[in-house]
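Chain A, query sequence.
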Amino acid sequence: MTAQHSGNPIRVTLPKQGGSSGSPATASSRDQHEDEDNFKSEPQAATPSHPDAQRPIDQWLNQYSRYHQNTLNKQIHFICVPLIVISILGLLWSIPVPLQVARWGSWFNVATLTVLLTTIYYTRLAPTLAIGMLILAAVSIFILSHTEQWIGFKSWQVAIPLFTLAWVGQFIGHHIEGKRPAFANDLQFLLIGPLWILADLYRRVGIRY
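Chain A, predicted structure.
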């Protein structure tokens, strides 16, 4: 059994019967191991010669879903993933920037740079989802920029407890699921998690992506 490795979801090729060595028990063990760890390979782009091939975004989302089959774990993620995103933005918003950059305005900082880079990444996967993520990020940053004015706390003071509690919830969810987090196999799944939540919302309201 062979598996190609890259920074994308897997596509596993099974050897033909009669042309491989090893017992059925060994093959079964390898199958279980690959199903758990989901080693990565280059996604198959949809082409006329491969009409049934999935788009890369569908492969990413399907791979992420394999780690989130338990209903309670999915509900926990629907709450905790957005909290993690806004808390990370809150921490990044609080990082000081050079005075020359600060003069351009409060929105020119590490948080907005991160949003720009992730939007480029998301656009390559699914432009419609990228637009939704950009809108949500802009709303989050607007809230963070007024946190101190509204509640008297700096954004990082709110972000740290939110980040901690959300990750505790995530690990509780995966304990219930009985599987380790997807990002343990590929850190790109940290970026896919928010897309997975948004894609579910799109499907519910009938938006194509």
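Residues 70-205 form one domain. Residues 97 and 127 are 30 Å apart (CA to CA).
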